[in-house]
């Protein structure tokens, strides 16, 4: 049986004569952000439900499966009137909570992500976490770095064993594709070989396919910015990491 592209990653790591590197995005790639969004919705309803009963009614029935890239779209698809005053108030609340250490720890790994990331590391790869999350000021607890590293530990992702690097934005407002394009210089400075890349945003995946044409470049087709119209025809597409182990296939 011919191995799938995902099943080719571990053998390619093991046969690499240079430092093998695997690049992972986090939000909606290794992790699902659905739980973070859902709990923010529920917490806002608990805090402001008396003022916005229409929002509270939606929050009482909305589920993880209703979440998507746009939290406001998830709410309106679930029945909230787009003109409801609650929506603007909620989006302010969401903006003050979603990008924080405390809430980022609520994310759950996507299926197979922990096992696959560890298998890559155990096979000898450097795990290069390249995420759009921002660093913030640790003294003010207004970033996502501390929450991310705690989540790595709690969820079982490789991080503290060496050959792992976490890259966070300094400028929160910088576009992801511009930020990741800059960090590629750091990846190249390692003088290794990028074996595979994984990202849920098409533009980022296309960038990797251009910069690392010999790598296995995967578009994680979970949820993504609907304004991202980058072509995905030449990308490898997966929706989870369950199919990574050729020995169990």
TrEMBL record:
Top-rank taxon: Bacteria
Stored InterPro entries: HAD-like_sf, HAD_sf
Protein's name according to its UniProt entry: FMN phosphatase YigB (HAD superfamily)
Organism: Algoriphagus boseongensis
């Amino acid at each position: 049986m011919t191995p799938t592209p995902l099943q080719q990653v571990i053998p390619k790591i093991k046969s690499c004569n240079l430092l093998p590197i695997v690049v992972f995005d986090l939000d909606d790639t290794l992790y699902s952000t659905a739980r973070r969004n859902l709990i923010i919705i529920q917490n806002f309803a608990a805090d402001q439900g008396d003022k916005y009963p229409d929002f509270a009614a939606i929050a009482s029935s909305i589920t993880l499966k209703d979440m998507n890239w746009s939290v406001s779209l998830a709410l309106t698809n679930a029945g909230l009137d787009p003109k409801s005053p609650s929506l603007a108030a909620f989006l302010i609340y969401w903006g003050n909570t979603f990008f924080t250490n405390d809430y980022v720890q609520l994310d759950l790994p996507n299926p197979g992500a922990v096992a696959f990331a560890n298998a890559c590391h155990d096979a000898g790869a450097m795990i290069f976490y390249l995420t759009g999350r921002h660093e913030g000021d640790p003294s003010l607890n207004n970033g996502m770095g501390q929450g991310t590293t705690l989540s790595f530990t709690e969820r079982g992702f490789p991080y503290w064993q060496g050959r792992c690097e976490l890259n966070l934005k300094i400028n929160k407002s910088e576009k992801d594709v511009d930020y990741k394009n800059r960090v590629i210089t750091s990846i190249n400075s390692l003088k290794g070989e990028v074996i595979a890349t994984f990202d849920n945003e098409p533009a980022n995946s296309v960038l990797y396919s251009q910069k690392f044409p010999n790598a296995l470049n995967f578009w994680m087709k979970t949820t993504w910015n609907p304004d991202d119209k980058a072509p995905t025809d030449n990308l490898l597409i997966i929706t989870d990491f369950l199919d990574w182990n050729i020995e169990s296939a």
